[in-house]
Amino acid sequence: MRVISTDNDELEPITIAGEAWNQRQLLASIVGRYFAIEQELGGLWPAWVVYPITEDDEESDVHDSLITLNLHLKNHDWMAELGVDEPWVIKIKPRPIRQFTTTSGAWIFFWLGSLVSTFIVGISWMKPRYSSVEWYDVEIMMPVLLFYSIPFLGTIAIASYLQKKVAAKMGTRIGGIIPVMLPFPYFPWPFGVISIPTTPRMDDVTWDDRHRLGLVSLVAPATLLVSGLICVLAGLALTPQNTALNEMPIRLELSLFPQTLGTLLLGAEGYLLACSWAHPLALAGQGLMLMGWISLLPFPGLPGNRILVAELGLVASRSTGTQIALFLATCITGLMFGAFTGHQFWTFLTILGAISILINGADTSSPRILDDIKPFRESSTLSVSHIIFLALLLALPAEYPTAGVTTQTPSSADK
Question: Nearest CA to 178 among 110, 240, 279?
């Protein structure tokens, strides 16, 4: 072996391998920097039985070592998953690439389309009080734009921003929320936006551990619920107790907590009147609260299901017993609130939840968690569980979230 140097001819020779490493040997060398490898396992993807490295009679933390290993592998488009064996297993898989493919044109289309659709349904909401003017009159357009479209979509944009920032702070890149428009007034869902998915799907994003998954999944629903409650209360305060109606409007039936507060602040009769011709800001708040509440439901693909996975673990949450319990709870709750016989909101929600549980409930490949062994911190688990239960209870929608306002005329017996 010969070493060439212009400065020092006494350099130590560099030891090189007799032949080039294959990919498994290269990956084993990288894994060996962070774990003590006992043996290699067979299979499609490279895997090894490993132990924590011991230095000065102190074992390294396997979860911290996994994070450091994945930071190294990320530059090579690989990722390492931690499993339990005697004592641990590291499996190397290719890291998904080119997930963030939504173009700027698509983002602009959906957000502008949602602005138009919320504007249309807002005009339809306000028209019973402004039949003497045309829909394009400033008197009706400005309240709709300022008190419905902007607060509604602005809150969704804030939820998207906060969700991305929290994930980035935890070392995970996720996409933003993209609203899906419903560009015509629909009585059971008069909000103009029918869905707010994240692109790419958060279930397809690679998560370091359950703690990050659970906390990031909680951000958007919490933002929608809190902002929605504020908008509802402000809207009720802005709603006049007397108004001239030229046609029968749609009456809002608010969720449990704002309904209770509204009744205490306005009285039973005042609350009923305010909901009969509610201010557009109250409509925006109710739409946000319903979306936030639905997001917390444990249906596959929704944030509530990711929070369930974060608390129970992927295997336990996808077990047959858990899925049967979720399916029965969905069907029983839906029937209690009049699914198939009452409001279409509960019919749609029950069918959607039951089908998603049957099709995707047992899918252990989604969401993708590299360290499913590391538990959600015990204190966090208790607090998040309590928050989710309390939020679902307080934001519980009414049996009829929307209802037509009817007038009663005195009968001859009452005269």
Answer: 110
pLDDT of 292: 95
CA end-to-end span of the chain: 116
Q: Answer whether 0.85 is exceeded by the pTM.
A: yes
Q: Is 331 helix (H, G, I), strand (E, B) or coil?
A: helix
In angstroms, the CA 80 to CA 71 distance is: 10
Say if residues 176 and 160 touch (Cβ distance below 8 Å).
yes
The tokens for 292 are 């936030």
Q: What angle do CA 55, 171, 111 make, to 5 degrees?
A: 170
Three-state DSSP at 399 gives coil
Contact between residue 13 and residue 1 where contact means Cβ atoms under 8 Å apart: yes
Q: Lowest-confidence range among 222-236, 248-262, 275-289, 316-330?
A: 248-262
Residue 1 — pLDDT band, cuts 50, 70, 90?
A: very low
Q: Which amino acid is at 385?
A: S
Please spell the DSSP secondary structure of 348-390, one letter per residue: HHHHHHHHHHHHHTT-TTSSEEEESSSPPPHHHHHHHHHHHHH
Identify the H or E element spanning 79: strand 78-84
3-state class of 240 per DSSP?
Answer: coil
Distance CA 251, CA 341 (A): 20
Q: Which 8-state DSSP code applies to residue 407?
A: -
Phi, psi torsion values for 81, nearest 5 degrees: -105, 140
Residue 3's pLDDT is what? 46
Contacts 24+ apart (CB under 8 A), 123-128: 124/185, 124/190, 125/185, 125/190, 125/249, 125/250, 125/280, 125/283, 126/280, 127/247, 128/245, 128/246, 128/247, 128/248, 128/249, 128/277
Tell me the mean pLDDT in the region 213-228.
Answer: 95
Higher pLDDT, 133 or 301: 301
Q: Report the alpha-carbon distance of residue 289 to residue 284 in Å, rounded.
A: 9
Pairwise CA distance, residues 366 & 309, whole Å: 10
Residue length of the chain: 415
d(CA 259, CA 257): 5
Q: Are 105 and 169 in contact (CB under 8 A)?
A: no
Q: What is the mean pLDDT of residues 390-410?
A: 74
